[in-house]
């Protein structure tokens, strides 16, 4: 059984490596020659725990290879998984250029009966449109197979997926795809083509809404004197609500929620449907990302001549992905305010350097980052960062003001350690600071 994966990014690479690990012969194809050269040398191009070891083992076992040749990738494939990006266009809609370009190349090179499974997140109706790229007599069939893995736990999310969605109007193609997933022993949901496309957007919209709602409640806790940690605990004990995704923080980021929520709003507009809840979710999130810098301005008055340390750059722990990360917004605001900035992240420094070059100081440890700083922003709950002792902020910082965007520390312990501590939804100090900043 020959499997090809088009696109070797966060989804495609994990998919390819995991299918090889499951015993299939896998070819990973990408148009980025540098990426393919690096992968062919047995080096993972993304930070994903456990991935590089698995990649090397499967390359050694001759089950996994990489290529930039579409002919080599597509001509002998029984299954082709499309996992290329669908980034946001300026108007918020999903850019389908990469997906369409893959479909065109498959139409040119695929031989025999090939099942094309679309993992990329695409608006309702896209898969049907893609089917139009293939000659009806070619034997190529299309299946929507949206991806739900989370960066940082991509391998476990693949082998122990909560569900595999297979959406198709072609039952035989759906059966074939379900057949190759059988080895994973995970639940498979069969749906129509359009429902599968919608499940992906609806799931991300729901999760983003959960985060924005909790963040709004957290903001209200600050005003009223309630504590979001206690509130979330009480809410989560209700099985209808569930305890996950109730952590208040500086907002969601990453390569999915921000673009998928906007794409759904845009898609709704195209169909004459006003997604007013989703518009608020997006707006709340955008305000949330500015909250801590506003609080710091409320405390300091100005950042001129001040030093800020940013701990945690990736949009969440265990990934080097900084797409739409809150750190990008915080750093942009701090630079606008004229702050000197030092940053630390266990995996994402290289990606941040590609954007900001020498405008930032790249520290090798949290300790080095906070040395001499007036403000420290904690933006990603990496274990290396949450384990950094509160006493060290007081010891190494010029003015120990800690702005904790992930509620990593206990407010009492922070105060006991002699810090001015700002977190989300737990202390009135933030509301006061924001009010002062916006006067
Ligand atoms: N990243 C996630 O956690 C995640 C989770 C679920 C779903 N998704 C969805 O999966 C899709 C891929 O996301 P990603 O984060 O892996 O993207 P990515 O940007 O990390 O990777 C995309 C890859 O596709 C390659 N590419 C572009 N055009 C190509 C072509 N014509 N042929 C072959 N390769 C090509 C790029 O060079 C790049 O390596 C998106 O639609 C995304 O919304 C992502």
UniProtKB/TrEMBL annotation:
Keyword Cytoplasm in record: no
All copies of the UDP-glucose/GDP-mannose dehydrogenase C-terminal domain together span 309-411
- Pfam families (UniProt xref): UDPG_MGDP_dh, UDPG_MGDP_dh_C, UDPG_MGDP_dh_N
Tell me which residues bind substrate.
148-151, 200, 245-249, 253, 316
Enzyme's top EC category = oxidoreductase
- The organism's superkingdom is given as Bacteria
Alphabetically sorted, this entry's keywords are: NAD, Oxidoreductase
Family of the protein in this entry: Belongs to the UDP-glucose/GDP-mannose dehydrogenase family.
Mind telling me what this protein is named?
Answer: UDP-glucose 6-dehydrogenase
Instruction: Please name the source species.
Output: Mesobacillus zeae
């Amino acid at each position: 059984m020959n499997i090809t994966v088009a696109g070797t990014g966060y989804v495609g690479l994990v998919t390819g490596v995991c299918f090889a690990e499951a015993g299939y012969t896998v070819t990973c194809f990408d148009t980025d020659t540098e990426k393919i050269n690096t992968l062919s040398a047995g080096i993972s191009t993304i930070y994903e725990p456990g991935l590089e070891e698995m990649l090397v083992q499967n390359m050694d076992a001759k089950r996994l290879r990489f290529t930039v040749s579409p002919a080599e990738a597509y001509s002998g494939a029984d299954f082709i998984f499309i996992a290329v990006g669908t980034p946001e266009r300026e108007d918020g809609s999903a850019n389908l250029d990469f997906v369409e370009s893959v479909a065109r190349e498959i139409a040119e090179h695929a031989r025999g009966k090939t099942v094309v499974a679309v993992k990329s997140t695409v608006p309702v109706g896209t898969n049907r449109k893609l089917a139009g790229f293939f000659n009806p007599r070619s034997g190529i069939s299309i299946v929507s197979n949206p991806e739900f893995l989370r960066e940082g736990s991509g391998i476990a999310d693949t082998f122990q997926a909560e569900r595999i969605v297979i959406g198709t109007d072609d039952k035989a193609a759906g059966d074939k795809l379900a057949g190759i997933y059988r080895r994973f022993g995970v639940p498979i949901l069969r749906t129509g083509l359009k429902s599968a496309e919608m499940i992906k957007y609806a799931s991300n919209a729901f999760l983003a809404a959960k985060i924005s709602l909790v963040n709004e409640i957290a903001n209200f806790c600050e005003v009223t004197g309630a504590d979001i940690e206690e509130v979330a605990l009480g809410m989560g004990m209700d099985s209808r609500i569930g305890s996950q995704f109730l952590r208040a923080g500086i907002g969601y980021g990453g390569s999915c929620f921000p673009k998928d929520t906007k794409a759904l709003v845009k898609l709704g507009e195209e169909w004459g449907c006003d997604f007013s809840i989703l518009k608020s979710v997006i707006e709340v999130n955008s305000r949330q990302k500015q909250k801590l810098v506003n609080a710091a301005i409320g405390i300091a008055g100005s950042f001129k001549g001040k030093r800020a340390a940013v701990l945690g750059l990736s949009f969440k722990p265990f990934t080097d992905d900084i797409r739409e990360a809150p750190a990008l917004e915080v750093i942009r605001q701090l630079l606008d305010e004229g702050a000197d900035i030092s940053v630390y992240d266990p995996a994402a420094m290289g990606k941040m350097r590609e954007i900001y070059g020498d405008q930032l100081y790249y520290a090798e440890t949290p300790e080095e980052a906070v040395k001499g700083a007036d403000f420290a922003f904690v933006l990603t709950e990496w274990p290396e960062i949450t384990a950094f002792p509160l006493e060290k902020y007081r010891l190494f910082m010029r003015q120990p003001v800690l702005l904790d965007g992930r509620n990593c520390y206990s407010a009492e312990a922070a105060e006991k350690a002699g810090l001015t501590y700002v977190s989300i939804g737990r202390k009135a100090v933030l509301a006061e600071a924001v009010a002062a900043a916006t006067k």
